[in-house]
Amino acid sequence: MSIINFDFMNFILNPFILLFITAGLGLLFGKIQFGKFNFGSSGALFVGLLVGWGAYTLAQRIYETGDENAAGMSAATQIMESNGGNVINTLFFSASLIIFVATVGLLAAKDLKAIIKKYGPKFIILGFLITLVGAGGTYLSTAIVKDTNPFAVTGVYTGAMTSSPGLAASLEAAEDRADDMAQNYPQLSQEEKEVVVSVLKTDSKYADLDAGELTELTAQQQTDFVNSAVSQVGIGSAVAYPF
């Protein structure tokens, strides 16, 4: 008689389970009143940060044991290898984002004709101005304030603009830029090398790295840098979004 072997770790690291947990806890957290303020649906963002951090940390610890029979090893390998360190598969993320953006467009479409008829091109021009002013302000801030993390700042900009398509574009651009920086690390300027090292240092295992001594990135460091850079965009967006 065969007995069903239920792997709780694989279950809890399943992306669908993580999404349901995050959504449920996020809604509960969003209803908590802090004086006259609550996070509302944005609570899911902060819960997502905690759940994502916890899931990644758990997957990393399981993966680093190297024990193929360890509980959760299948899900941990999926996250660390197939997903490139992302708790949620990139294709799944992109598909969900497309559905979200399409839904917003369909909901807003019914009012588009009435708004254009009533206000003319004013809102269209205003939309461009808000985007450009935000971009200009972000650029000036990074020029004035040194030692900023460009990946996190990019996320803060898209989050402050509450732009989901902007976040998707930023994540894609950050991944391409980070990959290019990792591949060509020896040719980077000293300032760019310091950016790379500062991003790597967000992972505790690289706490002792020194940009002045690091001449080349290992394959693992390159992968970790790209993953951390993309994560910084997401963190910046999540922090800025509710405000």
From TrEMBL:
| Subcellular localization(s) per the UniProt record | Cell membrane
On whether Ribosomal protein is a keyword of this UniProt record, the answer is: no
Q: Which domain of life is it from?
A: Bacteria
Mode of membrane association: Multi-pass membrane protein
Q: Name one Pfam family in it.
A: Asp-Al_Ex
> InterPro entries recorded for this chain?
AAE_transporter, YidE_YbjL
Q: Where is the YidE/YbjL duplication domain?
A: 86-179
UniProt keywords (A-Z) are: Cell membrane, Membrane, Transmembrane, Transmembrane helix, Transport
Q: What's the main place this protein lives?
A: membrane
Q: Which GO terms describe its cellular component?
A: plasma membrane
Q: Where are the transmembrane segments?
A: 12-30, 37-56, 87-109, 121-140
Family according to the record: Belongs to the AAE transporter (TC 2.A.81) family.
Name used for this protein in its record: YidE/YbjL duplication domain-containing protein
